[in-house]
Design goal:
alpha/beta; Single alpha-helices involved in coiled-coils or other helix-helix interfaces; Rossmann fold; 3 domains; 7 strands
């Protein structure tokens, strides 16, 4: 199937075609990469979904929340795609990819699409091709794309570079958990949702929410936010309490940003950032290809390991070789 035919099937909402396309963009094979680039070009950028990033500490109930939240949205007639990034083993490279089993009801919903993807050791737990998978889901006509990341940490803010709204899911009664959440990720969050606000934990959830609300008031207000944002709220994925209120806040924030020009500006800035990231990744990939540059890198690596040269000096030498090659390429392109 060529890229044009696959693009047409994706636009028609063919879920198998969408799954096949995501597999294509996630592939590391050079021929698959060329096909993926052609497919994305054929699809264009006409459709837009609301992209929502979701992160949280392990055990906070991200999958339970996403299932309940997703079912609420599909119940309103919306089409929901979930891109769940699972951690990959640094040793074997494998992932469990168990999100479909944890979201059994949502996975059976005809208006929902769940795609677990391996993080492949990417910084922040965001798979390198997650942004492209998001674009494919938009082209397939989904209204909301949820991007679930591996966990919480300073590098987790990468998800904010590919989504329109960023939710941070937290649990109540975590003791010093407020100290454990890094300032960087709190500054990126649009909403902090304290989950498990039900049963015996409801009172603790309310106290935790108040603590987060107080912490957020100490942060400098961002120009892209209206008054009152970012804010903290309580939700219960089990009982469904607070879900409608949280969705209303998400829509209000997204609408405000659209009306004030921040939504389009953020999308443009994200596109440029990911273009630069793609260039950096391509340059690093060149070092893995067999050839003189790779051979010299291996030689320098052995010299560094044997303490014959410092890592900084070896890196400077290799970078000089790359620059000289780029200079030769530039000179060749200028010749008649």
């Amino acid at each position: 199937m060529d890229s044009g035919e696959l693009a047409e099937r994706i636009r028609a909402g063919d879920r198998r075609a969408l799954a096949r396309a995501i597999t294509l963009v996630e592939s590391a094979r050079a021929d698959h990469r060329a096909q993926a680039v052609a497919l994305l070009a054929a699809l264009g950028q006409g459709r837009q979904a609301l992209r929502i990033g979701l992160s949280g500490t392990p055990g906070v109930g991200k999958s339970t929340f996403i299932e309940a939240f997703g079912l609420m949205l599909t119940g309103q007639g919306l089409k929901v795609a979930v891109l769940a990034v699972d951690p990959s083993s640094a040793r074997s490279g494998g992932s469990i990819l168990g999100d479909k089993t944890r979201m059994e009801r949502l996975s059976r919903d005809p208006r929902a699409f769940i795609r677990p993807s391996p993080s492949q050791a990417q910084m922040g737990g965001v798979a390198r091709r997650t942004r492209e998978a998001t674009a494919l889901c938009e082209a397939a006509g989904f209204d909301v794309v949820l991007v679930e990341t591996v966990g919480v940490g300073q590098s987790e803010v990468m998800v904010a570079g590919m989504t329109d709204l960023f939710m941070l899911l937290m649990a109540p009664a975590g003791g010093d958990e407020l100290q454990g959440v890094k300032r960087g990720i709190m500054e990126m969050a649009d909403l902090i949702l304290v989950n498990k606000a039900d049963g015996d934990l409801k009172a603790a959830a309310l106290r935790t929410c108040a603590d987060y609300a107080g912490a957020l008031r100490l942060l400098r207000r961002r120009p892209q936010d209206p008054a009152g944002f970012p804010r903290a709220m309580t939700v219960s994925a089990v009982e469904g309490a607070g879900m409608a209120e949280a969705w209303a806040e998400m829509r209000a924030l997204a609408d405000w940003r659209r009306d004030n020009g921040w939504f389009a500006a953020a999308r443009a800035a994200q596109a440029r950032t990911w273009f630069e990231e793609e260039v950096r990744a391509g340059l690093l990939a060149r070092l893995d290809r067999p050839g003189p540059l790779r051979a010299r890198m291996e030689d320098l690596g052995e010299s560094v390991a044997a303490a014959r040269i410092s890592p900084a000096a070896a890196a400077a030498e290799l970078l000089a070789l790359i620059e000289s090659g780029a200079g030769a390429l530039d000179a060749g392109s200028e010749s008649p």
